[in-house]
Amino acid sequence: MAKNNTITLYDLQLESGCTISPFVWRTKYALKHKGFDLDIVPGGFTGISERTGGRSERVPVIVDDGHWVLDSWMIAEYLDEKYPDRPMLFEGQSMRVLTKFIDSWLWRTAIGPWFSCYIQDYRDRSLKVDHDYVTKSREFMLGGRKLEDVQAGREDRLPQVPPTLEPFRTLLRETKWLGGDTPNWADYCALSTFLWTASVAGTPCLPDDDPLRDWIDRGFDLYGGLGRHPGMSPLFGLKRREGDPEPFVKNVPPPGAGTNRGPQSTPRLPGFQESAKAQ
Description:
Layout: E1 6-10, H1 22-33, E2 37-41, H2 48-51, E3 61-64, E4 67-70, H3 72-82, H4 93-125, H5 131-141, H6 147-151, H7 154-157, H8 166-173, H9 185-200, H10 212-225
Parallel strand pairs: 1-2
Antiparallel strand pairs: 1-3, 3-4
Helix pairs in contact: 1-3, 1-9, 4-5, 4-9
């Protein structure tokens, strides 16, 4: 049982003190969801093994009254198993599977493109002691390309990302949270994409009027503004230039508009009276 209702969390921080890791972000939310206070162990990319006594070279890592747990997903499962009397992060196996799908889709659709748009900012905002490590490790990941060269031209790439998020907007038009009436692990995994982006974004990536803003703002405000660190940058404010694609679909029908409610709900073509046979 957590001593004094407090669990130790090993963080991954930038020079500003803001968390950069999306995996640490989702773990922070999971711990607050369960009602715990956090004892944060600060630190950057280097020295993780030393901070954790050789137990891990990556974070998040938690310590619950002497018990060490690694990996954000394993931490979430541990919290539900250990504390089933507190609000659950998962609601059945299907939620686990669907959450993994949404998480994987957002990584490919958003974090992948945004990573290239903010990779120099990512390095420059890290702790000064981490600059050399971040530069060498990320340039290796990028096939030897310089971070400055990868980020160059982002003003042309950034407008291409918002339209690809339309399936996520569609999903959130019909529900307050991915978890339904209240947020759960699915929301925290998805929010971590935008929390990570706000920690490194040197310029906005979404338009001011993006329909995602309501869910993102409510998510950042959870647990006393857990996602509102002063070191974070605005996500919203991307300006549409001539030739840029529409960032999102406008004039969307209300939820349930396409539901079959009988003949009266089936659109008729002018001059064509016979109802469609196929459903």
